[in-house]
Specification:
By secondary structure, the chain is an all-alpha fold. It has one domain. Helix content is 76%, strand content 0%. The protein has 8 helices and no strands. It starts with 7 loop residues before the first helix and ends with a helix. The N terminus is likely disordered.
């Protein structure tokens, strides 16, 4: 689960790196915001309990909705830093997940886990591909690892939906780990940015 070796050492010498570095302060801030949101969301979900209370339903909708908003901010700030097609795909997938989770939350925890699991698999693949495309920026190995882990976690949520008494609490761990990866990427981006 640990990120692989950094590519930041070669970033400064790579062609076109000035463009990539120009986008890093905004991306770094966004990653920190995403870490704070994920940690707060996970804490609130634990407080809401393992069942589908009204608060839990709201939180389930809020997580992918926030992901859409973050991807919009990311795409606007990263246009100069490279391709953003993957971010547009992420917006669409997360918007569908928000709607799917709102519907699934009326059926039960098992359906919520199935929808969340499918979203985790698809969005994990997108995150992995975006991270690979952004490697010249540096600080992306945590995002690549996070995307791969998201795919595996999504599969486990789908399997967990068929167990007796499925619970929402595993989603809090998923969000926390994802937030930690965002924080690691923010730190690595900070270290990769040339100082004046």
């Amino acid at each position: 689960m640990a990120p692989a070796a950094s590519t930041t050492a070669s970033t400064a010498a790579s062609p076109g790196s000035d463009e990539h570095v120009g986008g890093t302060p905004a991306l770094r801030r966004l990653y920190v915001v995403r870490f704070v949101f994920a940690a707060a969301w996970a804490g609130l979900l634990v407080v809401a309990g393992p069942d589908l209370s009204t608060g839990a339903k709201l939180l389930l909708f809020l997580y992918p909705a926030f992901d859409v908003a973050a991807a919009v901010v990311d795409a606007r700030s990263a246009r100069a830093a490279g391709p953003v097609k993957g971010l547009y795909l992420n917006m669409a997938v997360s918007a569908l997940a928000a709607v799917g989770l709102a519907v699934a939350s009326t059926s039960g925890v098992a359906d919520v886990l199935r929808v969340w699991g499918a979203w985790a698999v698809v969005s994990g693949l997108v995150q992995l591909l975006v991270g690979v495309a952004r490697r010249p920026m540096g600080g992306q190995w945590a995002m690549i690892a996070s995307g791969g882990i998201s795919v595996l976690a999504g599969g486990s949520f789908i399997r967990g939906a068929s167990q007796d008494n499925p619970s929402l609490t595993s989603l809090a761990g998923y969000a926390t780990l994802g937030g930690i990866f965002f924080l690691v990427s923010a730190i690595r981006l900070y270290r990769a940015t040339p100082k004046a």
